[in-house]
UniProtKB/TrEMBL annotation:
Lineage of origin: Eukaryota, Viridiplantae, Chlorophyta, core chlorophytes, Chlorophyceae
InterPro entries: ADP-ribosylglycohydrolase (IPR050792), Ribosyl_crysJ1 (IPR005502), Ribosyl_crysJ1_sf (IPR036705)
Annotated Low complexity bias: 332-352
Organism: Chlamydomonas reinhardtii
Pfam families: ADP_ribosyl_GH
Protein's name according to its UniProt entry: Uncharacterized protein
UniProt KW Zinc-finger keyword: no
Matching PANTHER family: ADP-RIBOSYLGLYCOHYDROLASE, SELENOPROTEIN J
Region described as Disordered: 332-359
Length: 430
């Protein structure tokens, strides 16, 4: 285009008017070219990992930050609410406990704490919430809120050494590998373990990096510190992608469907096992399968079903995602029925505000339904709580629950501190 303009210029060189017009065209062309360049650069930096879902991502940093904060606090409140009934692999036993203590209407923050594997005070985080905390603490303490493998591995080992609660297998193994074996990141991580410890760690990382470059590297570094294998990283990456899109303003349902479809446009592809896992979540959401019937064998309160109720992945990840998407109450694409809180057997919450959008009732509904399903309800609760709180905003976390969660005020301060390192608006980030 610019070439033909130039030709015209030469043949009419004498006319002043034409000179003015040509000058105008040149200026216009330069401006247009500059604008095009600027928009390309913006797309490359802000869109580095953001805007590929149908419907634009929110670019308002204030709102992104609110959802990111809600994700971290929602994860922690959900974890504390569930802790008292953690690791009970028998839903009849849970129902029995609730009946005996007159708590069928409100299983959250159950008293007395009844986990068979540890005794923590009511309102405390479970060992999973306690595994999210060091990620938050470590990152908040870095000048730019980053997470590097070697530094984080040292920190995590020291954190576990100080921990007076119950340490699970891979936590203990990494601590010993670092402190006794002198191993460095990533060799300190367990080469085979793929249990739910992986996706619990991604929540503060997503809060920091949503819409910004660096998410994939930070997830890889955090997971490998404790679980040094591709499968653990891949499944955590799937959880991070879903949560990121929700923090950027998309619904949980849309985010899950997008990852199940291969996360087109994402700079880091998802693995085959992720496609299978998320595909199965989408399928069961459409058919409105009760989560109970996937975690447990049909008709049984304790015999594991297809997905199983434990910390083992991909069952734990799938359970968290399906539980979140069902509680969020947004109708499934192509499903006629309203997305029921299918798995919730507690009739008490049936009247909770189940509007079309994730209402303020969705977080509580989802956390309660999940905790009643027992097993590793805490690791599921962490991710499900993060997703529902990010979708519904801070107001969706019941204030009474926040008040009961020990250490939440401190976590709030750390979250603020961490999110300060996000810098300005998404489009301005280079
Ligand atoms: C969560 O699971 C644990 C262990 O399976 C169980 O003891 C606890 O009751 C469950 N929580 C709730 C609220 O059902
Ligand atoms: C562990 O405890 C020591 C001694 O109280 C403390 O100095 C250190 O900061 C703690 N480390 C972590 C990671 O919590
Ligand atoms: C942690 O320990 C509990 C109780 O022994 C067990 O049910 C669960 O599978 C373990 N989880 C991990 C991640 O090792």
């Amino acid at each position: 285009m610019r070439n033909s303009n130039t030709d015209v210029t030469y043949s009419l060189l004498g006319s002043r008017l034409v000179q003015v017009i040509v000058a105008g065209l040149l200026v216009f062309g330069l401006l247009a070219f500059g604008g095009w360049r600027a928009s390309t650069v913006t797309q490359q930096s802000s869109g580095a990992r953001a805007a590929w879902l149908p419907g634009a991502s929110d670019t308002d940093e204030g709102r992104i930050r609110q959802r990111a904060t809600a994700a971290v606090l929602g994860a922690l409140v959900a974890d504390a609410a569930t802790m008292a009934l953690h690791w009970i692999y028998d839903t009849d036993k849970i129902q029995d406990l609730l009946s005996r203590h007159g708590r069928r209407d409100e299983p959250a923050f159950f008293e007395p704490p009844s986990c068979p594997y540890y005794e923590y005070d009511s309102g405390s985080f479970s060992p999973y919430g306690d595994e999210l905390l060091p990620v938050l603490q470590y990152m908040a303490d870095q000048e730019r809120g980053t997470l590097d493998g070697p530094g984080f591995a040292e920190y995590l080992a020291a954190y576990y050494r100080n921990y007076t609660g119950r340490l699970n297998k891979s936590s203990k193994a990494m601590m010993e590998a670092v402190l006794q074996g002198g191993r460095k990141w990533p060799e300190c991580g367990d080469p085979r373990d793929t249990q739910a410890n992986n996706f619990v760690k991604v929540i503060p990382i997503v809060a920091r990096y949503a819409g910004r470059p660096g998410l994939a590297q930070a997830v890889d570094a955090a997971v490998r510190a404790q679980q040094n294998n591709g499968e653990a990283v891949e499944l955590a990456w799937a959880a991070a992608l879903v949560l990121e899109q929700v923090v950027l303003g998309h619904s949980i349902a849309a985010a899950v469907e997008w990852v199940a479809g291969g996360a087109p446009g994402s700079h880091r592809p998802v693995s085959k096992s992720v496609l299978q896992a998320l595909g199965s979540v989408v399928e069961h959401r459409r058919s409105n399968t009760a989560l109970r019937d996937l975690l447990y064998a049909p008709g049984s309160a304790s015999k594991p079903g297809d997905w199983g109720p434990s910390c083992a992945n991909p069952g734990a990840l799938k359970g968290a995602l399906l539980g979140a998407v069902q509680a969020s109450g947004q109708p499934a694409r192509g499903s006629r029925a309203k997305a029921a809180s299918g798995s919730s057997s507690s009739s008490s919450s049936s009247s909770s505000s189940g509007g079309g959008k994730a209402g303020s009732g969705a977080f509580a509904r989802g956390v309660r339904a999940n905790l009643l399903l027992g097993g590793d309800n805490c690791s599921r609760g962490v991710l499900l709580g993060a997703l529902l709180a990010a979708e519904g905003g801070l107001v969706s976390i019941p204030s009474a629950w926040r008040a009961k969660t020990r250490g939440l005020a401190q976590a709030e301060v750390l979250t603020e501190q961490l999110l300060d390192s996000r810098g300005g608006s998404v489009a301005a980030a280079a």
